[in-house]
Amino acid sequence: MRRMSTFNLLVPLSLCLASLSCAVSSGDKTPAKEGAKEEARASGFYALGAADLEGKDQALSRYAGKVALVVNTASECGFTPQYEGLQKLYAELAPRGFVVLGWPSNDFGGQEPGTAAEIKTFCTDNYHVTFPMFAKVVTKAGPEQSPIYDALGKATGKLPNWNFCKYLIGKDGKIQGFYPSKVAPDDAELRKAIEAALAAH
User: Fold this and answer.
1) Which is nearest to 90 in space by CA: 117, 63, 111?
2) Which of 7, 31, 80, 140 is such that its CA lies 20 to 30 A from the CA of 184?
3) Rg of the chain on CA atoms, in Å
4) Residue 77 appears among annotated catalytic residues
5) What 8-state DSSP symbol labels residue 136?
6) What does pTM read for this prediction?
7) Which among 16, 22, 77, 165 is annotated as catalytic?
8) Total structural domains within the chain
9) What pLDDT is attached to residue 8?
10) For residue 26, what are the domain limits?
11) What is the 8-class DSSP label of residue 62?
């Protein structure tokens, strides 16, 4: 057990993943091995990582196997009330493997000027947001663009042109659709696409 602990701490992640198949074939189903298995099957969007709203690095592989709605958010936008619909959607569908992932951005109209702490307080106090929120990013193409939005843009050929644009991500990490700001969280077509993604194997 001591040897295994040292291995997990010191060996690079890539080597841990490379050894996974041997562990699985030998029947080792410990939580550590199951966690490594989840990392190994993460692909597409879920192979990326990002800092959360508290500045802690998070591997998006934790959402592999779920359906995600990625949204660029802002606190002072005409679309800001969509937070309410996003939270409602998340609360309803989370038990079925759905998650909303919010990325605040000040790209459009300077409508997200706040600090991380201010954004968190605003979302919690006004909309009771409980879905994951990440650190503020640049969504527009350029040297400061977030790797998240670089990947989303390359995969779809579309980048947000305003706040509260949405990308639907399938369980396999593939982007299944892009929805502009005016598409509300309760939009019938969006809901239909989410349901189809949840039903997919």
Assistant:
1) 63
2) 140
3) 18
4) yes
5) -
6) 0.81
7) 77
8) 2
9) 40
10) 2-41
11) G
